[in-house]
Amino acid sequence: MTKKEQTEFEKKVLEQFMSGKNLFGEGGAFAPMLKNVIEKALEAEMDGHLDEGERTKGNKRNGKGKKTLKSGFGTFDIDTPQDRQSSFEPELVKKRQTILADNLSEKIIGLYGLGMSYRDISSHIKEMYDTEISHTVLSQITDRIVPDVKAWQNRPLEPLYCIVWLDAMHYKVKVDGKIEHKALYNILGINKEGYKEVLGMYISESEGANFWLQVLTDLNNRGLQDILIACTDNLKGFTEAILSIFPKTQVQKCIVHQIRNSLRYVASKDQKEFMRDLKEVYRATSKEVAEDGLLALGEKWGGKYPVVIESWQNNWEELSQYFQYTPPIRKLIYTTNAVEGFHRQVRKVTKTKGAFTNDMALLKLVYLATRNIERKWTSPLQNWSLVVQQLYIKFGERIPLELNPNPSGASPRGIDGLDRV
């Protein structure tokens, strides 16, 4: 390079740098240098491939092809060496590879996990890296996490979880060109160290006790042997499904779900007064006081709303389990707020999606959202040391206590713990 060429090159670099233009992208000052380095590396790989054995088989160079590479430095074209027998498999830039840098793929997966659409991701990559990436390529990149999703779904579980919440979210998924409504089942557990963990997610056409039986069987097959307390909504047959797999489990139905279902059958003009009377039941200091309140509720409203009162009476045993515990445990188990809180965080990510192209597209996004959520679960539940002692008194040897169960302070095995499984 002459002195004049050197001066012009430096001027071009400075201008592009000051204007914020990508120096390695199309038209960038450094693009020819990057192109040259990659092409020379590919030529060296071809030289290594065409050894004496390959040449003996009649293999030799067969011209060059062209490829457009997208990277964190921008988009540029390269010439790729070819051999006659098409057996050359380069390592630097593999066949059919169009994304050069893995860090760009990681950025794309990260953006997708935050709920950004392919359109928004493509615009962001174009703005930041001066690189055009089609929706097809973006889908191929996000598909890289499919093996991680499957490994996470089948990972071993701990033998005991103290409290488990089971609930479903509902999404639209395309099936054979038609939109179908599907239920995404989520299971949130608290292990004996007090850490939250999403035990699994499952997709079905609708929420039902039969499918929950399959879910619980899968959890059991993955190593879960015992659940102390299972918190559920009021789905018919749910309790029977749980007890058929975990017969010692104590089932607490969600009070909030029961209240919501009750108010659907109470006239709007009566709802305020009815709720005032109902609070005497579920906010009572003991089960005995609550049952007196339930009796009074039936005497006052049973004639007008017999279906509502009958529902409370029929489900009372499973609705009233929380009275056995002190307020800290009551707050944990008498609603499904814990799993609903997790669902709220997931919906922040999935709300931009009208309908998912298939089941795996839904699982991919919820998996990535869950991975981000679990990273924040670095501490046990508040006052867990007191809670676990009460559970030990109640359930005895089913919850073996250790003097120092988690000395390192590490988070439980979850999505980020696959390498420890």
Automatic annotation (TrEMBL):
Keywords: DNA recombination, DNA-binding, Transposable element, Transposition. Residues 48-75 are annotated as: Disordered. It comes from the Bacteria. It holds the Pfam family Transposase_mut. InterPro entries: Transposase_mutator (IPR001207). Residues 58-69 have a biased composition (Basic residues). GO terms for biological process: DNA transposition. Required for the transposition of the insertion element. PANTHER family: MUTATOR FAMILY TRANSPOSASE (PTHR33217:SF8), TRANSPOSASE FOR INSERTION SEQUENCE ELEMENT IS1081 (PTHR33217). This is Mutator family transposase. It comes from Sinomicrobium pectinilyticum.
